[in-house]
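Much of our argument rests on the idea that a fold can be written as discrete symbols. Part of our work consisted of pairing the sequence of a single chain with a tokenised description of its backbone. We regard such an encoding as a compact summary of how the chain folds. The amino acid sequence and the backbone structure tokens for this protein are reproduced below.
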Amino acid sequence: MKQKLKKLLQFTPLTIAVVVILIALALFLIDFRFLRLVELKALDARIASRGHLAPGGETVIAAIDEKSISELGRWPWPRATLARLVERLKTGGARAVGFDIVFSEPEEGKERKTIDALAAELTKQGVAGPKILNLLASRRAADPDAVLADAIRKAENVTLGYFFHFPRGQQERDLAHISEKTLADQARRIEDSRYAMINAATGEPTDAYLPRAFAPEANLDIFSKAAQNSGYFNMLPDSDGSNRWSPLVIAFGENYYSSLAVSLVQAYLDFPALALNLEPYGAKSVNIGDIEIPTDESGQLLINYLGPPRTFPHYSIADILKGAVPPDTFRDKIVLVGATAVGIYDLRVTPFSAAYPGVEIHATVVDNILRQNFLTHSATTRFIDICSIIVFGLIIGLAIPRLRPISGMIAAFAVVAAFVAVNFLVFFRFNLWLNLVYPFVAMALIYLGITIYHYFKEEREKKKIRGAFQYYLNASVINEMLKDPAKLKLGGDKKDLTVLFSDIRGFTTISEKLSPQELVSLLNEYLTAMTNRVFAHDGLLDKYMGDAIMAVFGAPLAQTDHARRACLTALDMMRELRLLKKKWQGEGRPAFDIGVGVNSGEMVVGNMGSEMRFDYTVMGDMVNLGSRLEGVNKEYGTSIIISEFTYDKVKDDMCCRELDAVRVKGKLKPVKIYELLGEKKDESSFSAWTDPFARALALYREKKWDDAAAAFATVLELRPEDLASKMYIERCRNLKDQPPPEPWDGVFVMTKK
């Protein structure tokens, strides 16, 4: 029993996957705030990336914009101005007009104040007769509120907006004095926005999740009686300040009230029945006649934004009043009157913009309802979300451990990419909001957990292998074995590589002048510096051979630029040697020079040796040629010689001069050799003498011995230390005295290694 329990609790990739899935499900069910905010931002990204959708065309906006404020004066405007607007819209044939404005206070007109002041002054002076006072009284009776109310009444198509108070802190204390009578009066003014029908499911329906208001801020009684209906324009932003939901129902007292958008649609459709559907888990939907509007449990509609600001047609009220807008523009339309000017502060944060007009949000909700273009986020989608967390988490948890690291990473990326693509596709095609963040986080954490698990597991195994073999195998073999244990066998592969050989000149003479301790110290300092240069260019230090170094480029890790790396290493070795020589001379220690040979070509690379002892190295004819080239430096007085095979790979990056065509000892085929001088960018510093050398070499190969010798002498004038030119001058003299046999191919045969 204990063994079975231990096996069940064993830490495995599947265990990691199951634990992560359970944690993700728990966080999903408790609606973890941070991840919810991330998901909301992901929803914003989907809405924004979907791009612009065309509205249905039923809704337009009469905008209180900067132009209107400039021409009609600072907001709020006189009620008479708004009365003219209502009359214009009625004349234009608007089917429904909604005000995203509340008229909760009477207008104190300047004309009324002037008349009252004049009447008081005339009475005080005793010159006010009955006729004058009656005239002033008649002028005073011209109430601006009555003018607007009369226009609303005659229009018969106006829906007024109001708002609810949801007080917190000090605001709640400030409103605590409101009497029951005042609340009852305010409720009476908004009763035309009440839900007339409440459809309750079997069981015990609840309104506990509905937003509950403290008090309404209704329009004046004169306006409430004149309008055909009303609706609140409250918006309840998410915790990040963005408006993604529209509350279609708010509870106040024992009643439920509809929003401005719902009331406008009801008026536009000639007042079909308005119903609220409640379930035991909260609100289910809202019905306007045959249109069913899905909501969440708190009665909110997920707004399906169609595009950035001005997705709906905007008409400046200044243009409407002066007749600049064609009369038929508003025929059979829903006209929303609201502010878009920045200074009026009715701009909201939405997925498309951080400054989105609030009135256009109402227009979007109206369009969503009329077109029944809803984003769906329901109990069904939550079930799909739970299934996605489990299924995709198990896919990662079961598949990744069976794949190699790179294949696993590619597979994990492919699964995540497929999930994201499907999620976006479902959103774009079917308006379904499926959770993106929780399945994504679950997959990412499972992959990360399995990767960490494999890392520590492999590290334990590597430590075990190193402990067992470090005294018997070279580090290069151990590292290759750790990457792929199958490589722990004899044999190799043929690959295109570059090999580098370096050797100290006159090392025997130097060693005779130093004590063993001094010699070891000098040699260790030199080999350390040179090895660091090899490693700096990701070369493989194959072996030390006394004072010689052998390095390989292009194995065990493939390097497409292995020849270039080897050449850069050779140049760095020479620079490092110059620094060491300067240091040694200052310390009174002997200095020396080195020769470097570089060759590229096909070589056999792998584990060579016996079953008991082997080494990771390279072998082949091209390796031997590289070793010979290192020795050829002595013949030409050079430091770095590369073969024609290496030159063909680096000629665009390196500055070289052709030295000769030679047949090294033990080889039948000749090979062209080049002196490596520096990088291509420094070519200008060498061309002054390398170009004359190339012309001299051409004369030499044409057997023009005197001309060639003279040309090489010219090179010596430019570069007195050029031993190769001195060598060629001597060779020209000898060949002039003893001409080579015909046919002569210009190849020099090396008799020494």
